[in-house]
Design a protein that fits this description.
Blueprint (H helix, E strand, L loop, with lengths): L2 H6 L6 H20 L5 H8 L3 H22 L2 H5 L1 H21 L3 H29 L4 H29 L6 H18 L24 H23 L1 H9 L4 H25 L1 H25 L2 H29 L5 H29 L2 H22 L7
Helix pairs in contact: 2-7, 2-8, 2-9, 4-7, 4-15, 6-7, 6-9, 7-8, 8-12, 10-12, 10-13, 10-14, 10-15, 10-16, 12-13, 12-14, 13-14, 13-16, 15-16
Length: 398
């Protein structure tokens, strides 16, 4: 039996239902990636964290994700989908347990790295599983896998913010709730009819490279991806510090709403790519990024919650349009036997873009102040958006 046949043979349930269950499990598991977003302000109050410490903690998550994508990016091809997905869920549960049991910085850093590793493992394996299970085909399945991930990431701040606002033990209960959701996710994965048998039993790191056929496309989409993902990283890692320090919002539920909105906007943008096509989506993504930056500038000038929330939504829409179209373009330009390498390169760019600019804001905030750091950050992203707007209007030589 071939690898593909062993991975897609129906088992206890049909493929359509299995695709839904895998997508739901993916959504529940990805909640952990952004669960701390509305809680960073509480850590700052209780432990005296600076903005720089918050960005270092967030960067630890992105570092863990990148490491997992490189080491475990092809693990589900070699070991089977189910076992790898269950492994990623188990690591996410360990991360949540460490978060709930300890509040000191070293423990939180360890928990955040584990959370990133969990997300990185689940990202590659869940998209591969959904690509195989989707009755509409691999491309549609992959797109819905990405959307499920974004919905999960958007739900994390909403859940943590609500529990921190209206339930006791705000730095423990959100993580305990996520452990319960991970148990549900594991039960769903256990029932899926894929990954029952390992393909080779060997684990090989994922090679990262941009094939010559994809380099022009990669360069064309990279500035927009970097700029859009930098905005997403800011709202995921620093929205709590900005809202508390510049807007005067201390409610974890409201902070969670803002932090979650950027990912929900991303999910909407990714859905629209299927209707608009890649070229139009890339161009509209550049426009949406400019619009988000303009609204963010208004938020800084007026220190208003509504403008900050709108900037998160529009920025998220720009991420969804740009990223989903960029992934499709890179996939389409790469030879069939080198798509995994090209995707890995794009994912590394993605997580570097999410973490490094936010870390830069944290460093600059210690030298100047947060408002100045954010203004500089917006200026850099505006330059990237301008470069993207020029590049995406240039046709690719096929």
């Amino acid at each position: 039996m071939t690898a593909a046949e062993s991975e897609t043979t129906p088992g206890r349930i049909g493929e359509r239902r299995a695709a839904f269950l895998v997508g739901l499990a993916c959504t529940l598991a990805f909640i952990g990636g952004t669960l701390p977003t509305p809680l960073y302000g509480l850590y700052q109050e209780d432990l005296g964290w600076s903005t720089l410490v918050v960005t270092v903690v967030y960067a630890a998550y992105a570092g863990g994700t990148t490491l997992a994508l490189v080491i475990f990016g092809r693990a589900s091809d070699e070991l089977g989908r189910r076992v790898v997905l269950l492994g990623g869920i188990a690591i996410g549960a360990v991360s949540a347990a460490v978060f709930s049991a300890f509040e000191d910085l070293p423990a939180v850093l360890v928990a955040r790295v584990l959370s990133g590793v969990s997300v990185g493992i689940l990202a590659a394996a869940s998209i591969a599983a959904l690509a195989e299970l989707s009755p509409e085909g691999r491309l549609v399945g992959s797109r819905w896998g990405s959307i499920a991930q974004m919905v999960g990431l958007g739900s994390g701040p909403l859940l943590a913010g609500a529990l921190a606002e209206w339930a006791p033990r705000p730095l423990q209960l959100p993580y305990l709730a996520h452990i319960a959701l991970l148990v549900v996710a594991a039960a769903l994965i256990w029932r899926m009819p894929v990954g029952a048998a390992p393909v080779s039993g060997r684990l090989r790191p994922q090679r990262i490279a941009v094939p010559p056929e994809s380099r022009e496309t990669f360069i064309r989409v990279a500035p927009g991806v970097v700029g859009a993902l930098a905005v997403q990283g800011f709202f995921a890692g620093l929205s709590s510090s900005f809202l508390r320090g510049e807007v005067g919002v201390t409610s974890p539920a409201v902070i969670g709403l803002v932090g979650g909105s950027v990912f929900m906007g991303t999910a909407v943008g990714a859905i629209l790519v299927g209707r608009l096509g890649n070229e139009r989506s890339l161009r509209l993504g550049s426009i949406a990024l400019f619009a988000g930056l303009a609204v963010a500038a208004i938020a800084i000038a007026t220190s208003t919650l509504v403008a900050t929330l709108l900037a998160a939504i529009v920025g998220g829409l720009a991420v969804g349009l740009t990223l989903a179209a960029a992934v499709a373009e890179v996939n389409g330009s790469a030879p069939g036997d080198r798509r995994a390498e090209a995707n890995a390169a794009l994912l590394v760019v993605l997580y570097v873009s999410i973490s490094v600019p936010s870390l830069g804001v944290g460093v600059l905030a210690t030298v100047a102040d947060l408002r100045t750091a954010v203004i500089v950050f917006l200026g850099v992203v505006a330059v990237l958006a301008a470069i993207s707007a020029v590049l995406v209007r240039r046709p690719i030589r096929r």
